User: What shape does this take?
Amino acid sequence: RRRRTMRLEAMGRDGGALVKAAQAAVKLTLHMGGTGVNIPNKGKKDSPMRMLHELASALPADSLRLLCMHYSMKHNYAGSSAKTKAAFENFCDEARRRNVGQILLVSGAGPRPFDSVTCLQQLSLPQENCPEIGVAFNPYIPDRAAREKERARLRLKVNTGRVSCIWLQLGSDLQLLADGLSFVRALPAVRENRIRIYGSIFVPSKRLIANMRFRPWSGVYLSDEYLFSVPAAEEITARILQQYAAAAVEVLVETAVVSAADWDAVQRLVRRAESL
Assistant: This one.
């Protein structure tokens, strides 16, 4: 069977560990035929600019094109909207010079004085000086009003003309995913193939389920059915992958994939989805 392409997310507790994880993930991606590696920005200490310079020193220059570097408005707020926008534009310009493939721009949890929508609307750096910019979308929000607000925000982002990719959040409600995919695929820029879609999954394990029960990630909605057992979570994941395949969504794996055996475990889930 043909192996479906996928992206990995580098996992590290601090900057040094993240650089090492990125090196390993890039090597594995190149070896196994993946499409890229995402570099998270999960804390104020994780400066994307510093991380970019460290990665540029640690990785072969031509492999930086595989990277999608995350950039959080929450973690990189510089004291004012003008300074925050300037810092993001400086990062975009440097990332482009280094031949980084993509940037994923996110607001971060909670209200922001300067969020991803406003940043995209005010962005003045010429498009040719930026890598591709992606934005996040959560189709799994259970509250209908909040879900409609999320959709309205995505429309605003896409309408700036600066968005090349939409990244779907993790979750487990299959009907909400189907509804969300229908909404995204109906956007004119998506219909015209000007925007690609990526979708996240976890690879279920006992440890993952225990962590998500007791320390769930903000904005990640996992049902009691998903959290009941590994087999139940695998079944839901396979059905998510089935929807992704039908909608031409490329997979981002948000659990550690550090070996060929881990890679093959993901491919087994993909094959299970294909057999449904």
The beta strands are 6-9, 36-39, 67-72, 102-106, 132-137, 165-168, 196-201, 250-253. The longest helix spans residues 15-32. The mean pLDDT is 94. The radius of gyration is 18 Å.
